[in-house]
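Reading a protein record of the kind used here takes only a little practice. To see the layout at work, look at the sequence and tokens printed below.
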Amino acid sequence: MECREARTWLDGYVDGELDLARTIEIDEHLETCAACSQNRDSKRLFRDSIQASGLAWRCPDRVRTNIESLICREVGKPRGRPSIPRWWLAIAASLLLAVISWFAWRPMSGGLINDPIAQQVVASHVRSLMADHLTDVASTDRHTVKPWFAGKLDFAPTVVDLSSQEFPLVGGRLDYLDRQPVAALVYQRRNHVINLFMWPSNQAADDRLQFVTYQGFQVVHWNQAGATYWASSDLNASELRQFAQLIQQQ
């Protein structure tokens, strides 16, 4: 199997929708293809993030009834137990999938819902995971991570050690948000990655934590001591709040 064919089947493979023969073919290809293996891992990460967010949607009974009526009318069968052609079932499934996807992708709630920076933060968070570029400097020692930014930014980012609170530092990297270079500090909570972005703020006063759920990811934002902070993760909201409060206290 070549990469082009593998990519065609990869979504169905990740969701466990393929037959055994096709699954075995893809398994064999992934054993020897690093690019497709990385693509598979990225798709699994995205799927798990959506599932972890708790998003769920049930087709309303009226919509279900309308779809059944449409199918019955088109195939010319009476209501009850019609023998529905598979291609009509595929159309109905596609319609339902489109509606479900819309609900899964739309932003859910929060005061930052229309903030373009929140969208940039989530995009950078996802990109760092998918592109295998989580850190430029990988270290659990803040005395290694903080000096690494010297000369690369016109400010010194605050780097704190939260390993005793079970949010260990993983490292840091340069990123680009709000039309400027920013510091991205990477922390971890079990198997969940937290990207903490910071850069100087024009807002003098500190403000409270603001939360939003966007594309299945939690985002928290606040300003403090002349700096603006944004964090994103697929952690649940309570644990991300705990993380943000620990950063504030330091």
